[in-house]
Amino acid sequence: MPYDPDYPVVCMDESCKQMIGEVREPIPCAPGRPARVDDEYVRNGVAEIFMEVEPLAGRRHVAVTEHRTRKDWALQIKQMLDERYPSAIKVRLVMDNLNTHGIASLYETFEPKEARRLAERMIYAIATTERVTVKGD
Description:
Layout: E1 9-22, E2 41-54, E3 59-65, H1 70-84, E4 91-95, H2 103-109, H3 112-119, E5 122-127, E6 132-135
Parallel strand pairs: 1-4, 4-5
Antiparallel strand pairs: 1-2, 2-3, 5-6
């Protein structure tokens, strides 16, 4: 598939990452002795990471949030469409089948007119291990 700036292909996923800190300072290496790091750690909360990758253009965008809710996903979609792809006719969005990924999330977050505007700018494909389902075309 050739690159088309009017219909970019964007892959989106998110992940929860634990933030940890050291309890004791690591001991640096010395001649004949490797560095030593204690396996005990302190938990410093979690962060949600949203990642967009546009492989045909070699672009990526990362956003870090405190939560991973339907509203967070909808806000990421709005930012993607309005800020990173404002001139695209439609964005071909490829993502997994997480319960937050759907047009209903847009309607739960925005007024109906805005949700519809955003939904009409996407062709979204749900990728699973068995198949890809395309919607919004």
